[in-house]
Predict the 3D structure of the following.
Amino acid sequence: MTKIQLRSETSRGTGWLVLGVTLALFSPEVLALEPNEYRQFMGIDSRRLVWFLAQMHLFFGAFVLGVPLFAVIVEIVGWRGADSKLDKLAYEFTSLLSVAYATTAALGGLLAFALFTLYPTFMGYMAGLFKDVMFMYALLFFAETFFLYLYYYGWNRMQGGGPFPVKLQWFFRGLGILIIGAAVVLLFGGFGLQMRGDTRSFIALLYILPLGVGVLILKDLKSSHILIGILLNIAGTAIMQLANSWAGFMMSPAGVDEEGELIGTVWQVFENILATPVAVHRMLGNLAFGGLVAGAYAAVKFIGAKTPAERAHYDWMGYIANFVAICGLIPLPFAGYYLGREVYSTSAVMGNNMMGGDFSWTFIIQAMLVGSLFLISNYYLWSGMTRIPGSDRYYKYIKFILGALIISFAIWLTPHNLPLTSGEVGDMGGSQYHPTLKFMGLMPAKNAVVNLIILSTFFSFLLYRRGNKSDVVPISQQGRIPQIVISLAGLVAVAIVGQYALSMLNLDPADLDLPADRAHYFRTVGYLLAFECAMAVLAVILALRDHGKLAQGLYMAVTALSVVIFLGVYGFVVMEKASPFLRNIAVSQFLQLISCIILVTAIDIYLFRGARELGQLQWGKMTVRSQYALLLLTFVITMNMGLMGFIRSGLRGDWHIFGVMRDTSPWSYTPSNYTMTEMVSLAVLVFMVGVAFMFWLGGIAAKNKAPDQPSEKPADAPDGPASSSTPRAGG
Amino acid sequence: MRSSVIGRVFVFLLVVLGAYMWVGQAITAMTGGERKAASVVEVTPEGGEAIFWGKGRCFTCHSLGGEGSAVRCPNLGQFGEKFPLPIGARAEQRAKERSEETGVHYNSTDYLVESLAKPDAYLVEGYKNEMAIVYAPPISLNLKEIKAVIAYLQSQGGDLDLDNIENPGELAQGYYARIAAASAAGGGDPGNGEEMFADTCSDCHSIAGEGGGIGPDLSRIGEKGLKFISQSILRPARKISEGFETWVVVTNSDERKHVGLKSKDTPAEVQITKATGEVAVIPREDIREIEQDEGASVMPNDLTEMLTVKDFQDVLAYLMMQKGDEASAEEGAQ
């Protein structure tokens, strides 16, 4: 495909979208309580049609938002490590983006048309309320298109050239520091206090801070190219945030009265309670999704590779993609928890319906998918250890990790009550609850095992990282930086856990509608968290005194005991005696786990930095089975995205806009889980076929544009990384 | 790329999606398919059962013996040592407890009505008050549907008394009035509305003799209807009650402009009470200009930025109940 073809395709897609938004802006403004009008196209169920189109748009949207994130991260790592192979990889992924971008925009236009023609009253109301936001959305699309062109087509031209004049570099440094400073001030509420805290943090951390870093590093054409990549991501993220505000508003309307009339400001409408939690969840999900779709591309290429060099290249590409995906996956449950909590805060009815109502069994399917994601990710990591000389030393741990994962997975899947026939209920003594398994179906058990799954995956990752390292490098001999970083990580861990310990020690039982004599349940957790803080301090001291392995082992063991064993069991006691406090137990588990991951990773980075290697990594020495695992990961995360979209949207029940505008259409009911799997499967199938088609087109474009490839090809390119000197992501 | 590779991957995808749909189908076969919520019912246990397990979403928090899986709120059937009696029989026992606690006579219907209309009046030990206001959005049950649910609960091991449900005593009637007012106001929670009123409005307005005197007394505001109250909050300057007009006085001595209510007007002086509560006493001879500002109200016009939509609806529901009947208003708001 030529540049002109690509450009016209992207422009056409953007045109569709702009047309859709224009249609929105000229729609009549209506009040929420006016009778709704619904239409059909060729007799098709309008809800299913919109569902399918929205899902397709979201899949492609997630891809075009996830891949630039991924590409810029890889480009920066390559630039910092002067590794042209990583730069080539980033370019290869960006080349896949152009076609997907046009398709996303075209699908967005189609979705907008479907919504405006099939749900005219609802969309008229939304367009009236969000007209300013929709204008911004359309304009940002131009910005994103512009940055994408510059980023993709400027790749080769911005490779060479000398450094900028020193004065200019200093100017950029000063400006960058200024912008970063502004981000920090905004983050801590120096200004922008009229915003919600989460919106302020989102803007500070995802827009202003990256912009500041991008300006700070400006010193030549290549770093300018990275800045363009950052701007591309900022524009993409802003587009996502604006669109999320519509979805968020439908679940948690703000700034309007019960008749839907605007009584606040457009900002209040935009900044509704769920807008940012959904955006945070989507960001991480997109990162994982973008990584895994790229990984699927690598897996298919690996399976069809004809030479060892090709296999090595695509094995490495798959590994990097999977690594990025795991980075998105690990914090995803926390983001999900935050989103769930905000859903519950918005409406207890919606929250209860999510976990205990219409969607309780959908969450069982979700648990199956998420559990599979972690299980398969671990399998892929273990398979990857076969290409690392020396990693056989750690094989013995795998069976224990696998055991922990399987048991945890089984518990996570266990429903509280079983859908049984009356005969089966009679056989179980007249109860739907199994005498033993019923405990496995309760939240304390599930909270314990989900933490164990994450901890086990983290442990697998640690084993992978140290696979071919001979032994640790004393931290005391590595200068000041490791001491500062590890101490800071310890401080972060103590701050995260410590603040919650304090709040537990000071929590008034009356705040939870509990009698005063239940205070000791809070205090116990408070002291446990305080002990965890002490362990973090001890781990830092041990690490700085060259007992890094002991520090890691001790801190992980204490965390596992506290989070999984103690709080897992204690959760049942709390559930019986002080049920409202159970949510705080879940928060304390999550906080301990995240602190453990932060501190142990910081120690690990320096523990093995520059350690002697036992041999070179043998890229390409992977089984075909492992590539199918990588493909399966992509399929599962795509299915899970569809499922979660169904839950998020379905939580509104029979409301277009929760509590404000009722859905009075014939399709106003919650579809069954089977309908959900049918619809999601259809969307996944069409998306995967579409992506495969795009990869094929991208392949043709790459062949036609071979002379344009980054010119600084390494001597061994395109064979891919064959030596261990290639920096391993995270290594 | 060899087509066989694409073919294998495609088949693999189909197998995965097939397994996914099989799981969805198996779960749907076990748990039932889509259910459309019934909304119109008779006041019978059967009607209440449909609401309990359907539109009312009671099942998301309450189980009924072995039916349902919710554990968030008390089980309403006979279940373990903690719940030896089903809710119908339990309500009769609780009615006695409530009578002793409050000194007001309760029967089973009163207790059940109170549980639905004002869930925090009595909390079962170990449970938090997290019950939704079932007559507010998004559940929005009407009075008839609530009565049906009460009939259903009463039929669980208790003596069903449909006459008493339709024509209860004063206590339950108060709660019925509360539900009706809340439904008329779009389904706000009058209990929270009262708190919001106390925090936001009572410095200036009074109800039943309690509160400030800068703004009009609102003890009978409910009689003016929802539209009037809503407009008065959103656009206070549109219709100002007589005696509460905004006056602007400019003084000679310091050329200050005093804006507020003319709370006193004598030949010797004019007293202006400002929105902040500050009172300015201005001698006649010091007045350079005095005029009524018809386009302004002393009442803040940015209340919408101070209230969330829910708070606004709650305040509306509370104000809708203020019809001068102190007993019922107080009862309803409790």
Residues 1-10, 707-731 of chain A have pLDDT under 50 and may be disordered. Chain A is about 70% helix and 0% strand. Residues 176 and 411 of chain A are 49 Å apart (CA to CA). The beta strands of chain A are 655-657, 661-662.
